[in-house]
Amino acid sequence: MVTIDVPDLHLQSGRIVLDAGCGTGRHLRELVKIPGLRIFGIDRNEEDLNKALASLREMTDAATKHLQVLKADVNRLPFADEAFDCVICSEVLEHIPEHHNALRELVRVLKPQGDLVVSVPRYLPEKICWMISRDYFNEKGGHLRIYKTNRLKKMLSESGVRCREINYRHALHAPYWWIKCLVGLKNEGHWLVRYYKKFLEWDIMQKPFFVRRLEEILNPILGKSIVFYLKKG
What we know:
Layout: E1 16-20, H1 28-31, E2 38-43, H2 46-57, E3 67-71, E4 84-90, H3 99-108, E5 110-121, H4 123-132, H5 134-138, H6 149-158, E6 161-169, H7 174-183, H8 191-206, H9 209-222, E7 225-232
Parallel strand pairs: 1-2, 1-4, 2-3, 4-5
Antiparallel strand pairs: 5-7, 6-7
Helix pairs in contact: 4-7, 7-8
């Protein structure tokens, strides 16, 4: 499930890109399709990094070989100032206690006029999950906070980046998490969870036009993620 619209970043050959909190590599797999990029992915979870590397090795349509994946903390990025043309940080800040410091690090390693893309869970769909399920609220390694749009936009602006666009994604995924919260967060065998998960997997793989169009219509209302496209300076 890709949250950041990578083609809309118009990344060109020779650009240096960081995926901070790359997880199992969902955005790395999109980035490596662009010829000539120099790509770095970092994450604290070694198991996720191994999964990312395994999936990247299996790709047959990768267009760049300049890829490095390493274990690192977004609060202490092992890179020089102004090292990257673009920094992506998707669904990470809500997990980090010192999120202000993490954001300063992301901006520090970004070149002037570079692109920063930040996505977090959207307030209303996330709030519903918190209201329905105490397990969701208390999940180890889960979400520490819910961001209101204006608060996060102000926080980003104070860090030295300006917002040029806001998008919403994954409206059809919000009901899936509401169902999980209702029937039990770990209850993967429930028939509603199983069938809805199959539907989402089918949609990701097949990309049927009518479903894609439906989600586009619903995203401004129910989008589970909010995405900020920003410029430094």
